Input
Amino acid sequence: MSDKADVVVVGAGIVGSAIAFQIARRSSFSVVLLDKGAGPAEGSTGASSSICRCRYSNPDVIRLARDGLAAYRNWAEFTGLEQPGNEFTHTGVLWLLNEDRGRLEAERDRLAEAGVAISLLSADEVAERFPSLSTCIEPFDLTGEVEHTCRPIELAVFEEDAGYADPSAANADLIEATRNCGGTVRFRSEVTGIRKDGERVVGIELADGSSIEAGLVINAAGPWCNRLNELAGLDLHWPLEPTRVQVAYRDWPAELGSLPIVVEASTGIYLRPDAAGSRILFGSVLEEDEQERVEDPDHFKTGADAAFRDIKIHGLHHRIPELPHRGGVTGIAGLYTVNRTDVHPVVGPSGMDGYWLANGLSGHGFKLAPMIGSMVAQAITGARASFDTDVPMSLLAVDRDPIDVAAKSVLA
Ligand SMILES: Cc1cc2nc3c(=O)[nH]c(=O)nc-3n(C[C@H](O)[C@H](O)[C@H](O)COP(=O)(O)OP(=O)(O)OC[C@H]3O[C@@H](n4cnc5c(N)ncnc54)[C@H](O)[C@@H]3O)c2cc1C
Output
């Protein structure tokens, strides 16, 4: 049996779902969204810390993140769902950076210019707002071998509007919203072949033997993206590497009060509240913790390593001195698809007719997804819709030059 669609999107994680929804909500294009999993968020999305913040090196990426944040902050309006499952938790992001006053003021101005609500807080203001946090900015050796004396930060950068979402619920919402707009979403539908007419992609084949003819096939297969490109015969020059990344959790005692998201330079950890404030999630922003390449995205260790938990917990205790030492530390691992060249996605025409990419989202895919969808949908349909970004898709084009980044990590 062969079906037909204007657009087939392969992969119903947060990125593919956002693309399908953004096309369906603004056009009469027939969209089919396919996923090999049994339900939403079985790939990278399900493991995501889902932090939505805007501080990046490139001003257009800042704008893209800002526009994605606006979609998450207005989720019911954006998705058109009366009762979305996803709730955005507004906390702000406190950046504790080891920089001098002049550079921090320049950083504030740079972010404000891109439309980010931003302020600088003194150490006293941080302590007043978030009493459980240490304001120390002195580098702290996690092995405990180097003696440490705390030195309070002069100024911290605070992203006022930032926060985090529920990644699985957001993914499920986009699927429901796609269906509400007339799109088709099919799970347990693994794409096992790409059909071509000469050099042009004209459809896909599924594991059950069926096929779908399509004017356009979009690869949104997350860490499986290279496999799909192999099926298409596309030799992509961007090194997109499925990479194992870990996060850990510890119970959070209510008496320590509320926390923002924190990204800090003393030890290179980030943290945020989790599970309705009953626990704390912490991970790493260091390039060295984004190096574990995974050959097969279907088979990797999904629990956090004891070594990771044992080391990073020292960073957490340094940042939150009153955090009790009781209770265990748990953790998980998921996959970034790291673009090793510039840690940014590649989006749009692949160079092969009828075949587009939305891959290599690295550690930024959750926050950017609604606007990756916006860019792709605007380019395909020529139509605008509410919450659209004005950042051009050429920023992330396959034939672009690498983007300059201050750090080849999630901080990018
Ligand atoms: C631990 C961790 C923390 C993170 N924290 C953040 C954060 O705080 N903020 C942020 O912005 N980003 C964060 N990220 C990154 C973000 O989660 C990812 O970039 C994003 O989820 C990628 O979404 P995706 O849709 O591209 O991939 P996925 O969610 O992996 O979706 C791809 C889908 O494609 C399907 N698929 C693959 N091959 C096929 C096939 N042949 N046929 C059919 N279906 C197929 C898979 O089943 C899968 O569901 C984090 C990621 C991890 C792992």
